[in-house]
Write a structure and sequence with these properties.
Blueprint lengths: L1 E4 L7 H14 L3 E4 L12 H14 L2 E3 L8 E4 L6 E6 L6 H13 L5 E7 L9 H14 L4 E7 L8 E7 L8 E3 L5 E11 L3 H15 L5 E6 L6 E10 L3 E7 L6 H18 L5 H13 L3 E5 L4 H14 L3 E7 L2 E6 L3
Parallel strand pairs: 1-2, 5-6, 9-14, 10-11
Antiparallel strand pairs: 2-4, 3-4, 6-8, 7-8, 10-12, 12-13, 14-16, 15-16
Helix pairs in contact: 1-2, 1-3, 1-8, 2-3, 4-7, 5-6, 7-8
Length: 339
């Protein structure tokens, strides 16, 4: 039984999700103590509990601590089974993070799977659906995975209520991924999604972001979506030769549209100035499938605590060598050794 300190590193839900994923893939029983001890409200929240119960179902695991607020969880998986699954976060909690908890395990199953998860699809505490579809999945496909996704219904923060559907074919082994150059930028797009809000909110966000980035030639427009409640997300998409990155900012009560745009602009500028292909959130997402597959390398911005926590968990579960080193100011190289 591997014991993980859920309060170490970034101290949040990522430790729970990654430990569950690696436990399912490797068959290693795990105890997670001090669950989310680094957060203001420690213990399992609804989205973490949904991920735990989803992992239990797909791997027929024995579980203790599966209740809201639990600070200690044990998880002993059996065989991961493909099939058709439906899970409901029951709040605006991230449906996408539940999907990502299951995805590597279901790739390793013998049979294909269809997974539907309802909840928040565009959530400020996790990569929103456009990132999953446009940035993350294409790179997994490059590694050999056969995955398709559909946004059945948008679930914008804070109401949630969306639904995502993902089809996963069995993939015995993921190949290597080398992503060291961005390549030429081919297109720039800005989208301001809104539900049940005045039109001027999205218009002001777009005008501010275009001005801050100088993207006067970008394809920029507002989009009205149907969601369970009022919500707004500003997206900047940069399509380059080797990768498409998606940056997001969320409207909040009391926060001006111009400040939402400024937050997105800062992240986009940091990525462009570092001259690397992989943004901070994508770096965190890539190391796990690379470590489970044939390894590889990528260049990224200054690593977050999330990335370093992810790397440490992968080393403990898999014994893989993962090297993170600075190449130059704000530009880092991550090497994941082959098995």
């Amino acid at each position: 039984m591997l014991v993980i300190d859920g309060g170490g590193g970034e101290g949040g839900g990522q430790i729970v999700r990654t430990a569950l994923t690696l436990s399912m893939v490797t068959g290693t029983p795990v105890t997670i103590e001090n669950v989310r001890a680094g957060r203001a409200k420690p213990g399992l929240l609804r989205q973490h509990l949904t991920a735990l119960r989803a992992a239990q179902e797909v791997s027929n695991a024995e579980v203790t601590g599966d209740e809201l607020g639990s600070r200690t969880v044990t998880f002993s998986p059996r065989t991961v089974r493909g099939g058709t699954y439906r899970f409901d976060v029951g709040s605006a909690g991230s449906a996408m993070l539940v999907v990502q908890t299951l995805l590597p395990a279901l790739l390793s199953a013998r049979d294909a799977s269809v997974v539907e998860v309802s909840g928040g699809t565009h959530n400020p505490m996790s990569p929103p659906y456009p990132f999953f579809e446009t940035t993350y999945l294409p790179l997994l496909r490059r590694m050999g995975a056969k995955i398709s996704s559909e946004l059945v219904a948008a679930g914008l923060y804070p109401a949630g209520g969306g639904l995502v559907r993902v089809e996963i074919q069995a993939c015995p082994a993921l190949g290597a991924l080398v992503l060291e150059e961005r390549g030429a930028i081919r297109a720039k797009r800005i989208r301001a999604l809104s539900s049940r809000l005045p039109a001027h909110v999205a218009q002001r966000e777009i005008a501010a972001l275009v001005g801050l980035l100088g993207w006067h030639d970008a394809d920029a427009r507002p989009e009205v979506v149907t969601s369970a409640g009022p919500g707004n997300v500003l997206l900047a998409l940069v399509e380059a030769e080797h990768v498409t990155e998606v940056f997001s900012g969320f409207g909040e009560r009391g926060v001006r549209a111009e400040e939402v745009a400024a937050r997105v602009a800062r992240e986009v500028r940091a990525w462009l100035e570092a001259d690397v292909p992989v943004g901070e959130h994508l770096a965190d997402q890539l190391v796990l499938p690379m470590a489970l597959g044939a390894g590889g390398s990528f260049r990224t911005v200054t690593p977050t605590t999330h990335l370093r926590t992810h790397v440490e968990l992968l080393r403990r579960f898999l014994g893989r060598t993962i090297d993170v080193r600075e190449e130059q100011r704000s530009a880092y190289r991550v090497d994941v050794a082959n098995r």
